[in-house]
């Protein structure tokens, strides 16, 4: 029987088989941020242990950092400043590379790691952040870990890992005009549920997946965790290899042929068996918007919010009722036309240059609606500079968008970017649970183009109609 890509990655990194369900897994790259690492370093210090392989660690300040458009950033909040200071101290002590507050390459961890050439096909990459699944776009096994596991990786460069089941999601056909990878993954999550991939490593296949750019694939894999996936994978093809080689020039002639030969094996065998499979048609995808407080509570923008009473499942019915109470909406009402007060474009899901180009294409020649505050937070310093060089930043600022410094920003409101109680936000982030972007704030997830359309019209708007309907 053939092997899945997931099985190949796990087997190639297994140091020891602990039992039928658990292995000791070798880690190629471990990424840290300021809020999941302090206790781990403290634990090492208490036990008198060094970091085993400092060269295979990387750290970044991204979650708590302010994004105000100033030349030199200072973290004003004392507790947040202490987190950043402690991370810098720990990294200096152990010889770990760090991208600090005002580093020119600073940015969101899941944006800068690929753009700096740190992610290669076949790697195992861990981070104390659930959206580490992003790296599956390169045929790398990435997943989030907890603080105690961070300490274990620092001390041993390994992880005690419970094996996942395997799931294949095939998407064939062509995505319709006006739809994106964000709409595709939101559509999938809405159909299989927020727990639909729980316990599985998901591998994406199909013509529609092959057609996606690398940035779009990162969006897809990033949000797979919102369906409960423990990992998300796409077999590396010529697009992935070209991206890696262009971002990692150190893979020179000496390694080039060996790398290509190794990467060519990173795909599921023809006879590989998956524990679960789904098949979707890309032609069925429309621009999606969440209406509730879970990523699976989403519908096409031209649809209506489900009526909870129509759901035969009591648990789902109760969840929908609570979500609608929180969001101030009601079953049966159209999604399109819901007024918004805020727009947030950013996060590790949608803050790459391709995303910002899409926003600028919608915004060009328009002004944001009166009473709407719209923020664009690029995913990294490199993305920010490229957007400025391409004229994207100028288009956005002329339209009334705030052009910010890179960071996680309002994605999770661990900084001074957050919603006020009752504010409704069109957001390109990945999660919309209660209070995610600020206490009592209301989040509607959507693509960057859809968020730009909402900023211009002041309401949730079908981006496919914007050209015909906007005066």
UniProtKB/TrEMBL annotation:
[4Fe-4S] cluster binds at residues 348, 408, 411. One of its GO terms (molecular function) is 3-isopropylmalate dehydratase activity. Keywords: 4Fe-4S, Amino-acid biosynthesis, Branched-chain amino acid biosynthesis, Iron, Iron-sulfur, Leucine biosynthesis, Lyase, Metal-binding. Its cofactor is [4Fe-4S] cluster. It comes from the Bacteria. Its EC number is 4.2.1.33. Residues 8-458 form the Aconitase/3-isopropylmalate dehydratase large subunit alpha/beta/alpha domain. It catalyses: (2R,3S)-3-isopropylmalate = (2S)-2-isopropylmalate. InterPro entries: 3-IsopropMal_deHydase_lsu (IPR004430), Acnase/IPM_dHydase_lsu_aba_1/3 (IPR015931), Acoase/IPM_deHydtase_lsu_aba (IPR001030), Aconitase_4Fe-4S_BS (IPR018136), Aconitase_4Fe-4S_dom (IPR036008), IPM_dehydratase_rel_enz (IPR050067), IPMI_cat (IPR033941). One of its GO terms (biological process) is L-leucine biosynthetic process. PROSITE patterns: ACONITASE_1 (PS00450), ACONITASE_2 (PS01244). CDD domains: IPMI. Binds 1 [4Fe-4S] cluster per subunit. SUPFAM superfamilies: Aconitase iron-sulfur domain (SSF53732). Pathway: Amino-acid biosynthesis; L-leucine biosynthesis; L-leucine from 3-methyl-2-oxobutanoate: step 2/4. Belongs to the aconitase/IPM isomerase family. LeuC type 1 subfamily. Catalyzes the isomerization between 2-isopropylmalate and 3-isopropylmalate, via the formation of 2-isopropylmaleate. NCBIfam families: leuC, PRK05478.1, PRK12466.1. Heterodimer of LeuC and LeuD. This is 3-isopropylmalate dehydratase large subunit. It comes from Pseudoduganella rivuli.
